[in-house]
Amino acid sequence: MLRFVTGNEGKVREAREYLPMDVEQVDYDYVEVQSDDLAAIAARGARESFHELGGDQPVAVEDSGLFVDALAGFPGPYSAYVEHSLGIERLHRLVEPEDDHRAAFRSIVAYATDADSVDEAAPSGRSDTDTSTDWHDGVTVEDGVAVATFEGAVRGEIVPPRGDGGFGYDPIFEHDGRTMAERSTAEKNAISHRGRALAKLADWLAAQA
Question: What secondary structure letter does DSSP report for 96?
Fold first, then answer.
């Protein structure tokens, strides 16, 4: 069984679609370190959660954000704060004068477990399903706990708000001609950055077996 540490039921449903194990939702408030690196944030949260929840079952956490090329990756790990404090239309206006409107939704899934149960040499998962060029896949071991991190990304462009669906930055993020807010839930899930990270975790778990 895997304990998925999140207050978001949607993340848990998505994890259950991809992972070959029972997934239990755990709403534990781990310390979210301040960092520009999603992998560092997720790995720290997974390691803390593994210790605090007893260390007898694997633990996963996920962190994600919108990374805008022209803004040197901003808002990135601060995406939720920026959305709530500035709003998505202000972010669009900030990017609009730039020549480069490219951006990416990025997700990191961090999986923590007992180090003795991990083969660090196992393949890190699929790369052909991902459009990221800045990989954060790998395994680190500290104090007997192994944390494997997997990145998923969907690239697109920042555009004026369109569409009535989705949430967050979906109305201003266009991928393949449509914003995320113009897609159904099923269409979004088919190209989900989180789903791509979870698929890589599933492949890695299969290689561990």
Answer: T
Q: Count H helices, E strands: the chain?
A: 6, 9
pTM above 0.85, yes or no: yes
Pairing, β 102-114 against β 2-5: unpaired
Coil/strand/helix, residue 123: coil
> Which two structure tokens, joined as six digits, stand for 19?
């992972």
Cα gap 47→204, rounded to integer Å: 18
Measure the CA–CA gap between 105 and 158, rounded to whole angstroms.
11
C-alpha–C-alpha distance, residues 125 and 35, integer Å: 25
DSSP class of residue 117 equals G
**Contact call for residues 157 and 63 (beta carbons, < 8 A):** no
What is each CA distance from 4 to 16, 23, 60, 95, 143, in whole angstroms?
A: 10, 7, 5, 34, 21
pLDDT tens, residue by residue, 14-62: 999 999 899 999 999 998 888 889 999 999 999 999 999 998 899 999 9
Better pLDDT: 136 or 162:
162
Q: Are 179 and 171 spatial neighbours (Cβ–Cβ below 8 Å)?
A: yes
Distance of alpha carbon 76 from alpha carbon 184, whole angstroms: 25
* Structural domains of the chain, with CATH: 2-208 (3.90.950.10)
Structure tokens at 137: 């896949």
Chain Cα centroid distance, residue 25: 16
Q: Which residues are known catalytic residues?
A: 63
